[in-house]
Amino acid sequence: xxxxxxxxxxxxxxxxxxxxxxxxxxxxxxxxxxxxxxxxxxxxxxxxxxxxxxxxxxxxxxxxxxxxxxxxxxxxxxxxxxxxxxxxxxxxxxxxxxxxxxxxxxxxxxxxxxxxxxxxxxxxxxxxxxxxxxxxxxxxxxxxxxxxxxxxxxxxxxxxxxxxxxxxxxxxxxxxxxxxxxxxxxxxxxxxxxxxxxxxxxxxxxxxxxxxxxxxxxxxxxxxxxxxxxxxxxxxxxxxxxxxxxxxxxxxxxxxxxxxxxxxxxxxxxxxxxxxxxxxxxxxxxxxxxxxxxxxxxxxxxxxxxxxxxxxxxxxxxxxxxxxxxxxxxxxxxxxxxxxxxxxxxxxxxxxxxxxxxxxxxxxxxxxxxxxxxxxxxxxxxxxxxxxxxxxxxxxxxxxxxxxxxxxxxxxxxxxxxxxxxxxxxxxxxxxxxxxxxxxxxxxxxxxxxxxxxxxxxxxxxxxxxxxxxxxxxxxxxxxxxxxxxxxxxxxxxxxxxxxxxxxxxxxx
Length: 509
What we know:
InterPro entries: ClpP/crotonase-like_dom_sf (IPR029045), Tail-specific_protease (IPR005151). Keywords: Signal. Residues 1-28 form the signal peptide. By secondary structure, the chain is an alpha+beta fold. The protein is globular. Helix content is 35%, strand content 19%. The strands form five sheets. Strands 5, 6, 7, 8, 9 and 10 form a six-stranded antiparallel beta sheet that branches. A six-stranded mixed beta sheet has the order 12-13-14-17-18-21. Strands 2, 15, 16, 19 and 20 form a five-stranded antiparallel beta sheet that branches.
């Protein structure tokens, strides 16, 4: 079971761009927390919360004792120091949230940090300049614009005398995302032209744009958000969101939409039905011209959904052998701190009361093993040990019992917000040589998973604490998947991706 792992969806200051399944501060839609009513009260609250978040993370995060991550303590110290450096300037909810975002960015761990719980009603009014931008691999481009603004397709060259990349680093990546992950440029760069009230950044005032070979300088006129912002922002970097299911945009081409691995009850049934359909009528996949697996919008959830579909496509035993060969020495180490252990045992009791017996047994087993490690004063309970050194390597050769080999080209559409269980899906799909990734670079995971949330003293935020670490996982912390075909089209529509697929199929002939 692979639960939570930052798979709660964070909004970015109520708005506009999805948070890519990453730990980032956000405003809550409903919350009864009492806010400080003086500047001194805000300073006291943010200082107290930063120091408590630091200590809780130090006491419970697996990284504290992870010999494979010697920089963890240094990054945690940096997160505290960078946040505290801004603390005395905090006078309201927007500044408090920005400071917590600064803590998260400095910690550089997408599965840890702080999530604010401040009511959305306290958020400052969002402003925009009448146009939306999107990153397309080599630069920032105007995706859509109101009349009188830079035309769609215009490249942003610089702002306020700084190259646009530097301006994005200063204004955006200093407070959210990780600029060393290629996928995050696709996800976050457009926020350069969203003013969410962060008092520690200077919104662009004048920018240079290049359009059809001509370079012009334009003043940025900030204005209140409107419906255009909401409508355009939804599709600016990942395109439209298709419902879960299989469609056939043309004969013999199967389009499999998997926009989430956190399906609701109706979507779960669709996942089960389409997997069963491929299993029972596998000739449909074997005889297709191509299979497109559309992961746009997918930020993770449970890896079971992609794995069961892979079983249907390639065969369960074949997939299992490939995965065992891919990462044969992976170990799972659970941080056996008192708080983490109590969390797992409490979870087991709660799940049992909800009659979720399988999940309750899972939590109880790990909680009791963590308790045993705690009694022995060990920092970790190791769930899975390395195989013996003399154990033969996994044989991935096809067996007579395997179903016919799937030779149909499989194209997987990847967006920059693909993280967690979405990356697990790529681990599976890319085991097979007939898979081609198209779109953008993915996001990346740390090796820390299975998060829990613990309130901070002010009630304004919760600290995010992973409870386990993957050791010797083949996919390294911070490793992204690069596409074989980068989709540089400004509009990331299904029709444009279909054109990319058709063009590649022609090249294969």
